[in-house]
Amino acid sequence: MRAIGLIAGLVAASPVFSQDLTGHGGPVGAIDVAGDVLLSGSFDTRAILWDLDRASARNVTRFHDGNVTAVALLPDGGFVTAGQDGRIALWQADGRAPDFATEPGVSAIASLALSDDGMRVAAGFWDGQVQVLDRATGRVQSHQAHSDRVTGLGYLPSGDLVSVGGDLRLVRWDAAFTPLARADLPDLPNGLAISQGRVAVIFAEGALRLFSQSGEVLPERFLTDRPLVALAARGDDIAAGAIDGTVWYLTADALAQRVMFRAATGPVWALALDARQVFTAGADGVIRRWSLDDGAALGRDAAVEQTEYTDDSRGAEIWRACAVCHSLIPDDHSRAGPSLHGIFGQRIATQPGYDYSPALEALDIVWTPRTVAELFEHGPEAYTPGSRMPEQRIASAEDRVALVEFLARAAADADQ
């Protein structure tokens, strides 16, 4: 079995600067940005609220049963997550558990949208349903909006909701969920965003099209012969990402190209825009920053810039999975968890600069080769209750020994 992380509970804020955001243990398929924070959701079942100025995790949540498929930041500072389990969860910025969550759904959530005031949350499901949650009352209403997956949702300034689905339909709904306009789509839609009161939709054929609120086709642009799979809009700007890693930054009125750049060798699954940069996320779990002026990389990937100890041992092989969230370099806080340099001899929940749960702070554990091995023998839920660390074990006693021996060699190398 693989170890995805290491010491339990090391998941709170950490001071680094100008880094790409590294900390998820799987592909990132959803991001949203506002002000100095970014919210991400991943296949690793976690959502992370990031401090952009410090490039560090403010809050790491693990609630959904399966992938976190959609996220959104609320105007009041909280956030929303949605998942493969069909649940919508509302969180405070520092929440350890959601303030409110819907019951598990019969299918996964594919898309999410907030009204401009943040009081209505709409979620689109793989079975074609749309749920609308009223945050003021907690009331949830379900509607059969499409006959296939709801691939995109967006609230217009009027408060009407627009949806697109795998049934190749675009529909505008009023507050009572009565259809006000419908339009047939020429190809499979893969995402929707509202831009200047118009509806931007990306398609599997590689086209980006704008629609009026009544469903009429406005400017369209064929960007590529590959499927477009990510879309973001902000003010006068639109960004679209393709399955081959290419990103286009365009004007929102005529879809004129401002910048085109290659962000990844694989799919760009999620995009977000702020006033200075575009963020991309994909299969490797890293959220990267790019200039809106010329598409140049702005963030510094700590995993690339810093050389960590490694060798050709079995322990190093096991460590590679842990390295997604932790570093072996002293004081390196570029990942969701802190550095594990010198971990042996440290008491649990004592790394400076981290917001540990009271449950972890109350544990009487000192990390030694034996206790680290026991952590992966029994698993975090049993050994360190209150941890936010994903549950995993290392079944082989030999592999557990190999890992702790590797950690000891890495610490000795760093001290030389």
Key traits:
6 helices; Methylamine Dehydrogenase, Chain H; four-stranded antiparallel β-sheet; disordered N terminus; mainly beta; 2 domains; globular
Folded structure, characterized:
This protein has 416 residues and is mainly beta. It folds into two domains: 28-303, YVTN repeat-like/Quinoprotein amine dehydrogenase (Methylamine Dehydrogenase, Chain H); 307-415, Cytochrome c-like domain (Cytochrome Bc1 Complex, Chain D, domain 2, Orthogonal Bundle). It is built from six helices and 27 strands. Strands 1-2-3-4 form a four-stranded antiparallel β-sheet, with no helix packed on it. A four-stranded antiparallel β-sheet has the order 5-6-7-8, with no helix packed on it. Strand 25 (268-273) and strand 26 (277-282) form a beta hairpin. The radius of gyration is 22 Å and the shape is globular. Residues 1-17 have low confidence and may be disordered.
